[in-house]
Amino acid sequence: MSILFAGIDGGQSSTVAVVGDESGAILGRGGAGAADEVGTGPESTRLRDALALALDAALACARLPGDATFAAIVAGVSGYDGCVYGAAPRLPAERFVLMHDAPIAHAGALGGKPGVVVIAGTGSVVYARDELGKEATYGGWGYLFGDEGSAFGIAREALSLLMRASDDGERAPRLEIAKVCEYFGQSSLRALVHAFSTGTLSRAHIAAWAPYVLDAPAFRQVVQRGADRLVALSAKACEESSVKRVALSGGLFNDERYYDLVASGIAAQIAAEVLRAKYEPAEGALLLAYREAGYQVTELRE
Fold first, then answer.
1. Are strands 115-120 and 26-32 parallel, antiparallel or unpaired?
2. pTM, whole model, 2 decimals?
3. CATH second-level architecture of 4-111+280-292?
4. Which of 48, 54, 50, 55 is nearest to 34 (CA)?
5. DSSP-assigned letter for residue 218
6. Tens digit of each residue's pLDDT (9 = 90 or more) over 43-90
């Protein structure tokens, strides 16, 4: 039987696991729900369950036994700060490393090369690694205080715009307010706020509205501000790490217009080479798992 390795990307909306063999061949993929521990307590099993379920699904996809063991597993989790606050993950690996999701996105996006990765998924963060391996993080302050330019951040700012317009008695946004309430299944903006505050409307659900915001002319300035913030953070990261290579990673960049908005802003401001991510974050975690076990695998194949 092949020697097995796994990489896991634990996000705020979903978790993805990939299983590979010692040659770099990806054998299977699997998914599960959110893995982050934001807003959870010591009784939470969300992190543990999401990692285990995603790995089980990847094993099933690869038609491997559920009790298979791994030489190494690396899992990157959104918001991880070095501590597990709920139930600790238990995965069948000789080496298991839990880290923030920024390094796995960087490893996947740039294939281990120095540079800056801009991550815009449910949340956002900019992460740099220079020629000497020195790391630095910019943004990534979470959904309450930051995450500008992310799916949640853009949706949050669009909702705030509508709420202010409602207070000011502006007529133009009424149609947008009606559309928003219909999308979220709420009777009013205040009902929407109450649903989010009480946990019946999740961050993932709010973030899922972002594609509509990107497409709506009424929110063009909101989208531009989000993109501008990612450009500014990228410029700071490039300046302080002395690198001129930036990769864009995360689900929000699947929107071509948003990708172009951020990419062109970076290229114009700092004359950096802007790249699409080479691999997804889960695949970056898999590359780090190989490295953790001492395997020199730098290319993946299906």
1. unpaired
2. 0.87
3. 2-Layer Sandwich (3.30)
4. 50
5. G
6. 899 999 999 999 999 999 999 998 899 999 999 998 888 889 999 999
